[in-house]
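Q: what does this look like with adenosine-5'-triphosphate bound?
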Amino acid sequence: MLRFESVSHTYSARGIEARTVLNIPAWSLMRGTHALLRGVSGSGKTTFFNIAAGLLRPTSGEVYLEDQPLYRLSEAARDRIRSAKVGYVFQTHHLMPGFTALENVLMPMMFAQEIPTALRRARAHDLLGAVGLANYARHRPHQLSAGQRLRVGVARALANEPLIVLADEPTAALDAASSALVMEALQTTCRANNATLLVASHDPALVVRFSVICDLHDGHLTESESAPA
Ligand SMILES: Nc1ncnc2c1ncn2[C@@H]1O[C@H](COP(=O)(O)OP(=O)(O)OP(=O)(O)O)[C@@H](O)[C@H]1O
Ligand SMILES: [Mg+2]
C-alpha cells in the first residue's frame, strides 16, 4: 500500500555540502503492517517520513500510496490524499497555537470531511482520552507540556481514520507509562481500521510491538522480521 521505487534524496543548498541522505531502490509495506523505523540521529528518518507523506519531493524516484504515484499528481491532489488517508505525527508537534487541544483534533476532520459532522466532537474527545488527555481538551498548546503537545499530535493524526499512520518519534518526550498509552492508541486505532503503521523510534522497548523492523543506515534501508516476543 506504500511503496518506494528508486527513491533517493540529496539535500543541496548554498553554503552546505550536498549530501545524499536516502538511496532506496525498492521498498514497500503491506496494508495493515506495523513497522518500526530505526536509525541514528541524522540518518534520514524524518526525511523518509516527509517523502512518504507527500510533503517532500524526492530528488529522484516515486512513492506510491495505494498505487497512486504521489509525485506525479498535482500538489493539490497530493494534499487531498494526505488529508484523507495519511495521519502524520510530526517529530515537532505542529499544533495550531491559537486553538484548543480539542479544536486541533477537530481541524483535520473539518478539512477532510470524511467523518460525519455529528460524530466529530465525540470522536475528538475519545481520541484525547485515548492518549491520556481527557482533562486537557480546552488547553491551548502553550498551556500543555511538550509530551502533552506530542500526544495531541497523535490524537490529531488519528482523527480521520487514516489508512496509513506515520509517527516520527511519537514517544521520544514521554515516560514509560505515557509512551505505552500512545503506542496502544496508535496500534489499536490502526488495527481497528486495518491501517498501516510506521513508527520511527530509538526506543528498544518498542521493538516487541512490531512485526517488521526497518533500519536506516548510510542512506540504505534494510528490513527484517521481528522475532516474536
Ligand atoms: N532542509 C534540509 N537541508 C539540508 N539538509 C537537511 C535538511 N533536512 C535534513 N537535512 C540533513 O539530512 C540528514 C537527515 O536528517 P533527518 O531529519 O531526516 O534525520 P533523522 O533521522 O530524522 O534525525 P533525528 O533522529 O535527529 O530526528 C541530516 O544530516 C540533516 O542535516
Ligand atoms: Mg527526525
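The domain at 2-225 is CATH 3.40.50.300 (Rossmann fold). Residues 45-46, 91, 168 surround magnesium ion (ligand 2) (CB under 6 Å).
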